[in-house]
Structures are given as C-alpha cells and as structure tokens.
Amino acid sequence: MRIGMGYDVHRLEEGRKLILGGVEIPFEKGLLGHSDADVAVHAVMDALLGAAALRDIGTHFPDSDPQYKGISSITLLEHVGRLLEAHSYVISNIDVTIIAQKPKVAPYIEQMENNVAHALGLEKNQINIKATTEEGLGFTGSLQGISAHAVCLLEDRQVRTNRKEGETR
Ligand code: MG
Questions:
Q1: 61 CA distance to ligand 1 centroid (A)?
Q2: Which of 149, 119, 127 is nearest to 46 (CA)?
Q3: Which helix (H) or strand (E) holds 39?
Q4: CA of 55 to the centre of ligand 1 (A)
Q5: In angstroms, what is the span from residue 12 Cα to ligand 1's centroid?
Q6: What is the C-alpha separation between 70 and 93, in angstroms, rounded?
Q7: CA atoms of 116 and 69, how far apart (whole Å)
Q8: Ligand 1 center–CA 14 separation, angstroms
Q9: Which of 57, 113, 134, 142 is the most buried (most CB within 10 A)?
Q10: Max CA separation in the chain (angstroms)
Q11: 99 C-alpha to ligand 1 centroid (Å)
C-alpha cells in the first residue's frame, strides 16, 4: 500500500466559472487559474501522483504551457489515471475535503464523486468527497479562496493480484 496526500488553493474572483469536482456550480465568483482551476480535482491529482512518487501536477501540466489554458481538470485527471496504470498502480480509495464558506457544495457532491470515479475507472465506493467551512475564519472564511485536501491509497497491481488469488484459494 502506498499513501498520497494533495492540497491546493485557488483564489475566488468575479468573472470566472466555479468548477468543483468537474461540476459547474452557480455562484457569483469562480476560481482563478490557468486551467479551469478545479481545486478539488487538483488535490486529487497531487495525492495520486504523490502516492506513486511521480512528483506533482505542476511537473506534468506546467501552468506556463498554453495547451493547458482553460483545460478541464477532469481531462488532466484521466491522464493521471493512465499514468498510474502505466506504472502498474491501482487505486484503492480516495478521500477529499473541500473547504469553502460559500456556496453550499452538498447538492453537487454526488455528481462530483461520479465525475472523479468515471475519470479514473473506479467504483463509486472508492471515492468520497465532503465539504466543510472554516467557520468564517481565514481566507476561505472571508471568501478569498477555496481549498481542498485529498488523500489516497494505491496498491501495486501484482501485490493486489497475489492477495486476491490468496483469498480465493
Ligand atoms: Mg491548482
């Protein structure tokens, strides 16, 4: 088993769409960034890359590269999934916390989980997303930005196969 963690922050600005977990959420502000600035998916990608010892999203998708301008982070997540596959890792589970004072994220959680699961070819019960506020404190509380944490577990494909064969013997 290999553990990974990811953390990301994006600034809230007027005139931007708010995309979280691949869902466009109606709000007066959106997250600023080179891509669609999906802070939740960025945290997930960094957790996965970290667990696989494959550095971070800045290494794989530099924000100086015009090909990633405005790109859907779900598309980048699919790429990370293929990278893990190529390195013979399988994902056990992913757990995400989105920290946002506003808007209320709860109604969109299920769609976010579906989007992430679909992008990585996972079952629904392998991905959990939750949201919290920081009680009006700090940069999330003052609506300057939204942050997200993610942790994940990876297994080596061969180890998992051996274990499953052992279980059925
Ligand atoms: Mg980011």
A1: 10
A2: 149
A3: helix 39-51
A4: 14
A5: 12
A6: 28
A7: 21
A8: 18
A9: 57
A10: 59
A11: 14
167 in Cβ contact with 136 (< 8 Å): no
CA 43 / ligand 1 centre spacing (Å): 7
Q: What is the pLDDT along the chain (169 residues), one digit of tens a residue?
A: 999 999 999 999 999 999 999 999 999 999 999 999 999 999 999 999 999 999 999 999 998 899 989 899 999 999 999 999 999 999 999 999 999 999 999 999 999 999 999 999 999 999 999 999 999 999 999 999 999 999 999 999 888 888 888 887 7
Q: Determine how β-strand 145-156 pairs with β-strand 127-132.
A: unpaired
Tokens (6 digits) for 2: 């290999």
User: Taking a C-beta distance cutoff of 8 angstroms, is the pair 37, 31 a contact?
Assistant: yes
CA 127 to ligand 1 centroid distance, Å = 20
Q: Contact at 8 Å (CB) between 145 and 139?
A: yes
Structure token pair of residue 127:
């991905």
Q: Distances in Å between the alpha carbon of 55 and those of 48, 109, 125?
A: 10, 28, 26
Is the distance from CB of 28 to CB of 34 less than 8 angstroms?
A: no
Measure the CA–CA gap between 29 and 105, rounded to whole angstroms. 14
Q: What is the rounded (10 degree) CA torsion for 39, 41, 42, 44?
A: 130
